[in-house]
Design brief:
Layout: H1 4-15, H2 19-26, E1 27-35, E2 41-42, H3 44-55, E3 60-72, E4 75-85, E5 91-103, E6 106-113
Parallel strand pairs: 1-6
Antiparallel strand pairs: 1-2, 3-4, 4-5, 5-6
Length: 124
């Protein structure tokens, strides 16, 4: 179970748009990450590389935790709103729920739930 201080540090790192650093610091070496019902991706190095590749496509990223974040035992639920701005100004806004299982101060399993229709970028 993460302490409140550890969970707040994780949220602060994501909100400061240091997503790859958050994976490197807070995910277990053999952690898994899953989007809706897709096949889980496994291994911290793979997760960090995938996040880095995704973020490189965007000119700007804004990340916000919608409070409260819920922690019961080893399970944490966080609602995130992300806004991605492409180099051409096109924006993509994602509202998602992250369901995490922690062991101590590390995330070992994470699954994101969101409406895939949100993946359609909109011109602003």
């Amino acid at each position: 179970m993460p302490s409140e201080a550890v969970l707040e540090s994780f949220i602060a790192l994501v909100e400061s748009n240091q997503h790859v650093k958050a994976i490197e610091r807070f995910y277990a070496e053999d952690a898994s990450m899953q989007e809706n019902f897709d096949t889980p991706r496994k291994g911290r190095a793979l997760l960090a590389a995938g996040e880095s590749a995704f973020l490189e496509r965007w000119a700007k990223v804004e990340s916000q935790c919608v409070r409260p974040a819920f922690c019961v035992g080893d399970n944490v639920v966080i609602r995130w709103i992300f806004e991605f701005t492409a180099p051409d100004g096109t924006k993509l806004k994602m509202d998602e729920i992250a369901y995490q299982r922690w062991q101590g101060d590390r995330i070992v399993e994470e699954r994101f739930y969101y409406d895939p229709k949100q993946r359609t970028a909109k011109q602003q």
